[in-house]
Amino acid sequence: MKIDENSMIPIYVQIADSIEDDILSGKLKENDTCYSQLVLAKELKVNPATAAKGINLLVRRGILIKHRGQAMTVAGDAISMISERKRHSEVEQIAEQLIKLSKKLSITKEELLKLIAEQYDKK
User: Fold this and answer.
1) 50 CB contacts (<8 Å, ≥6 apart)?
2) How much is the mean pLDDT over the chain?
3) Which residues form the HTH gntR-type domain (predicted)?
4) Same domain, 117 and 62
5) Is 6 within a domain?
6) What is the pTM of this model?
7) Count H helices, E strands: the chain?
8) What's the domain range around 102?
């Protein structure tokens, strides 16, 4: 997990995004214990309050579940919640930008779909 101190994205959001990435990649499993704010703060060299803010963002989203007096766990349906949110926010934004750029460059819908399909098949 890395933090970009020069990014325009707040550090606590980067922390939340990194935890979500760890869940999507399988590094953190659904229903398992999540990193504590102190572990995150030490590893990332950030203030524990900043780490807590990132964790609390995921608690508000329902991705992490707080258990009073115990470690936090990853929600049982975290992957589907993260995927759904990212699909609607990030992927749609990227698609919008790609379509706008394609129209500026006079790339037809068919050409764009062919390019996307080619790139998709490479990965």
Assistant:
1) 11, 12, 15, 41
2) 93
3) 9-77
4) no
5) no
6) 0.75
7) 6, 2
8) 79-122
